């Protein structure tokens, strides 16, 4: 962020010193059961306490002026905002191997809070001990568990945290010296202290994107590889679980084409040289609560480079037995991160991409990240939606699933909240409603996700806080309405802001028992807009949208505090019977809290039920996605 005035320089000195003091009030010393992972040997701990540790954040804080008097906290200054944003991505090398009981600092854990564990996965490490930094999406997976237990009259929350021992993590972490050296490039990073030219270790499966428990197995997933199984309780890594490769041939929908020849030429290079799996499992899964099925999706490795896409869907029962496997060949160059389902369809909202030749050359040469080989393709003014049949070869009305339904807007889909169908049995018509988070092609950029600059190793918050000037550039919630006639043709497709809510918002969630069904409520992470220097992101609020009356209400955290993805914990049969869990990141004091909200009271002064503090030495960076695990919980039925 450029600083050009004398006042900005003064604020830089003040904020720099303040940031230094905030992060080093005491050495990071844990109980014997929690070994150090901050890369500082025990003999240097006291010295390191007076310095800025290498793992403090993605950005390096070396060379900043010292000896400047500490001044009062600067709230809306863009320099303070810059460092607050860096502190949201603070590396945490330590693990909580033995459960730590969290201290309640506000309210109390409700006596009727369900027993279970909230798992949260995300990156834990961004800098090694040899000068390299990585993009948040390439950071090693750090699994956090918040277990709600205790007696009915005295509930407690116990915290554990472990790194996922992936193949890349085992190679890059020296357990003897407790130091790190990055050797895998990953898709979004360029190593400074590692090998660049000829480094084919691109598929760095860090298992850092999502987490699910299914069929007695706890799994951490990544965007492009097999998940890693985690031992329940201890959070030890069991190993990689082959869910999709080697499961037999899928039921194929769609004929082969000329691109199959090109694919056959690419496969030996991608599979043999770059060690890519034949099918890349995506990180987002779906749980069909009514049918008690886990749904997952994969794509072919070679399709990243070809103007066609092969997607394979898998359905597992509660014992992890594969019930169905269907593959669809779509003649379009698409990137899919998230997707949706209904009783009768898998739903893909296509994000158009294209091969970037100059970017591919620089990526192969190690000059830029491998993701430089791709770029968004804004050549079309509409967005395709594919309704793919869950059973049989055709959709219920006999419509050709190869024919995309075009949304009359150019939108890049980030996350789905829900999808459902209303069927008129008498008329033979069908209404499909999709609730999702989208952004514009104009804003979305593979090279600038989270504002990461691979050349400087810093994060630029201005990328996430651009002026929209009346345009819906940033992530926001929409509803796509599709009406299908008796012949299976689309008679109407429209898109509009969900509940007319236009603030930047992401991580849409609902009561998971209502997935695939018509829902009344949807929740998300959003912004109050109160901080002028960070008006849009990171989020500081939870929004609840009532789709029946188009109303909206919010709960906002404290000053200089941010939140991650909210998650709904059901405890009854009503759609908003339960609680909202969300992690609060108090970056100015380097603390994390688990917050319990009453969803029925969001918008009121008493929405906050409880806030529990994670010990400072276990403060962790922003998590991505979570999962609530409650055994023997009744499933809602219509």
From TrEMBL:
Asked if the record carries the keyword Membrane, the reply is no
One MF term from GO for this chain? metal ion binding
Cofactors required: Fe(2+)
Q: How is the cofactor bound?
A: Binds 1 Fe(2+) ion per subunit.
Q: Member of which family?
A: Belongs to the carotenoid oxygenase family.
What are the GO cellular component annotations?
chloroplast stroma
Work out whether the entry's keyword set contains Metal-binding.
Answer: yes
Report which superkingdom the organism of origin falls in.
Eukaryota
Q: Where does Fe cation bind?
A: 337, 415, 625
InterPro entries to which the protein is assigned, alphabetical = Carotenoid_Oase
What protein is this chain from?
Answer: Carotenoid cleavage dioxygenase 7
Which Gene Ontology BP annotations are present? Answer: carotene catabolic process
């Amino acid at each position: 962020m450029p600083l050009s005035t004398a006042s900005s320089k003064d604020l830089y000195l003040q904020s720099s010193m303040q940031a230094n003091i905030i992060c080093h009030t005491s050495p990071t010393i844990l109980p014997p059961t929690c070994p150090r992972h901050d890369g500082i040997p025990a003999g240097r701990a006291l010295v390191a306490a007076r310095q800025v540790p290498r793992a403090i954040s993605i950005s390096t804080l070396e060379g900043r002026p010292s000896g400047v008097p500490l001044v009062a906290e600067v709230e809306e200054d863009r320099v303070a905002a810059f460092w607050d944003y860096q502190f949201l991505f603070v590396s945490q090398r330590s693990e909580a191997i033995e459960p730590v009981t969290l201290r309640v600092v506000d309210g109390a854990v409700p006596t009727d809070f369900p027993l279970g564990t909230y798992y949260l996965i995300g990156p834990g490490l961004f800098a090694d001990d040899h000068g390299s930094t990585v993009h948040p999406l390439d950071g090693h997976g750090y699994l956090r568990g918040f277990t709600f237990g205790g007696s009915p009259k005295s509930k407690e929350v116990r915290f554990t945290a472990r790194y996922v021992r992936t193949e890349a993590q085992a190679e890059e972490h020296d357990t003897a010296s407790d130091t790190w050296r990055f050797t895998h490039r990953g898709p979004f990073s360029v190593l400074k202290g590692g090998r660049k030219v000829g480094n084919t270790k691109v598929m760095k499966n860090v298992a850092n994107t999502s987490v699910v428990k299914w069929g007695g197995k706890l799994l951490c997933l990544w965007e492009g590889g097999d998940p890693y199984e985690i031992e329940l309780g201890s959070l030890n890594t069991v190993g990689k679980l082959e869910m999709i490769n080697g499961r037999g041939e899928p039921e194929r929908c769609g004929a082969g084409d000329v691109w199959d020849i090109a694919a056959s030429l690419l496969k030996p290079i991608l599979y043999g040289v770059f060690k890519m799996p034949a099918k890349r499992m995506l990180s987002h899964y779906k749980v069909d609560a009514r049918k008690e099925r886990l749904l997952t999706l994969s794509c072919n490795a070679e399709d990243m480079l070809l103007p066609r896409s092969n997607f394979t869907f898998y359905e597992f029962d509660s014992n992890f037995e594969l019930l169905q496997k269907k593959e669809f060949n779509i003649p379009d160059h698409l990137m899919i991160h998230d997707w949706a389902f209904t009783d009768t369809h898998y739903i893909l909202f296509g994000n158009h991409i294209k091969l970037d030749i100059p970017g591919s050359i620089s990526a192969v040469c190690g000059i830029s990240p491998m993701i430089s080989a791709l770029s968004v393709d804004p050549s079309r003014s509409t967005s395709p939606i594919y309704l793919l049949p869950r059973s049989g070869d055709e959709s219920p009305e006999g419509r050709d699933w190869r024919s995309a339904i075009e949304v009359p807007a150019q939108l890049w889909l980030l996350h789905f909240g829900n999808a459902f169908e209303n069927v008129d049995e008498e008329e033979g018509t069908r209404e499909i409603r999709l609730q999702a988070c989208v952004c514009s092609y104009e804003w979305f950029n593979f090279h600038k996700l989270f504002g990461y600059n691979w050349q400087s190793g810093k994060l630029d918050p201005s990328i996430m806080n651009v002026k929209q000037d009346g345009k819906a550039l940033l992530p926001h919630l929409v509803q796509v309405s599709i009406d299908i006639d008796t012949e299976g043709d689309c008679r109407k497709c429209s898109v509009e802001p969900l509940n007319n809510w236009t603030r930047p918002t992401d991580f849409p969630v609902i009561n998971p028992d209502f997935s695939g069904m018509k829902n009344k409520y949807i929740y998300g992470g959003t912004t109050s807009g109160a901080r002028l220097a960070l008006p849009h992101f990171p989020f500081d609020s939870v929004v609840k949208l009532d789709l029946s009356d188009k109303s909206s209400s919010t709960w906002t955290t404290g000053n200089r505090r941010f939140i991650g993805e909210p998650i709904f914990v059901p405890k009854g049969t009503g759609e908003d019977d339960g609680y909202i869990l969300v992690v609060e990141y108090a970056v100015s004091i380097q603390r994390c809290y688990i917050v319990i909200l009453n969803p029925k009271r969001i918008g009121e002064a008493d929405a906050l039920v409880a806030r529990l503090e994670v010990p400072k030495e276990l403060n962790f960076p922003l998590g991505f996605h979570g999962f609530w695990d409650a055994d023997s919980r009744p499933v809602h039925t219509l």
